[in-house]
Amino acid sequence: xxLINKKVxxxxxxxxxxxxxxxxxxxxxxxxxxxxxxxxxxxxxxxGKYGVPAVSDYAFDEIDxxxxxxxxxxxxxxxxxxxxxxxxxxxxxxxxxxxxxIGQICHAGWVLISAKILEGRKxxxxxxxxxxxxxxxxxxxxxxxVVDSNIVSARRxxxxxxxxxxxxxxxxxx
Length: 174
Prior knowledge:
Mean pLDDT: 98
Order of helices and strands: EHEEEEEHHEHEHEEEH
Structural class: alpha/beta
Oligomer: single chain
């Protein structure tokens, strides 16, 4: 229970990758953290790629990143939607500037690209967006998990166990 009294944002939108949303949430909760699902609308049910629902606790505009210790960005097709919201990009930039852990897996790198925080960073993602990640100025690695300062990145669902552990470690170390 090393994350007691820690609060984590988990972004959500339609067609999130079900495991990439829920596995890290449960892992962080197991460590004692409070996790809030945050979407464009409070109380909305978002549906994952495989049909698993997620109901948002808050809307983006209700969130102050100063009140949170970390942020999770799931993969799937949700990141392509999430990166279109200025408030999401603002939250990512604020969390990064404060050195707070940012967890991103698979296509979630798109959100960090749009937030323009990857220049000079070491990351991984699904190989499908490797070029996007590199074009944003990052150094891309084909590894299960890459931790560079406060950014914890992973490639795909088989990487979830080491990714979730590394993300919890990053929160605990702050």
